[in-house]
Here is the input.
Amino acid sequence: MLARASGSVLIAVALALSGCGGGVGVGGPATTADKALDVPHQAELMAEGPLGERVLGKPNAPVTVIEYVSLTCPHCANFQKNVFARVKKEFIDSGKVRFIVREFPIGHTSGTAAIINRCAPEDKYFFVLNQFLTRQPEWVSQEVRPEAIYAVAKSSGMTHETFDKCLSNQTIIAGLSEVKQRGRQFGVIGTPTFFINGRKISGAMPFESFAAVIDEELKKKK
Here is the structure.
C-alpha cells in the first residue's frame, strides 16, 4: 500500500521543496523573452549540481540550453507537448544543442514528483519527465496524491517498494533543494525558464521563436 507515504514523509518533502512559485509556473504569462542579459557568469551557470545533470545531446554542441522545470506547470507541459520534440529532432539529435533539465518544483505535488523523477534510473529520467508533463491531468492536484503519482512512475518499471523508499531519500531531497536555490540565485522565479548559451528566456514560446534564439546563438559560433 502507498498510504504510509502520504503522512509525515510527504509533509517533510513538501516543506523541503515547495515555496517560491509565482508568475510563469502557476498560470502567469506564457512567454516572455528577457531583454536584460544580466545573467550569471557562464561558469557558475554551467556548474554541475549536487545530483549531477540530466542531459541530452553531444557534450561539445555549440549551444547549451538549460531548462528549469516544475512538473505541475502547465506551460512546461505545453513546451513538452508542442515544442520539445521538434527541438530534439532539429537541434539536439543533429548535434547543435546540448539540453539540460534542472528541477524547480513549485508546490508540494511538484516537489514529490521531482523526487520520484530523480529516483528513476538515469536512463529513464527523460522518459519519466515526459510522462509527468504530458499526463498532468491524471496526477496533478492541490493535495499530494501518492497513488496517482505512482501510477505515472510505474511506467518506468518502478516498484511500490522503490517508490516508498524514494520519498524519504534525504540525499535527493537535499540535492533538489540546492538545485532550486541555485536557480533562484540565477534569477529563476517561475517555470519554464530557459538559459540558451546564458541568455535568459522566461516562459514557453512557439517552436519558431525558440528556434530563432538558438539560430542566433549558432551564428555567433561561426
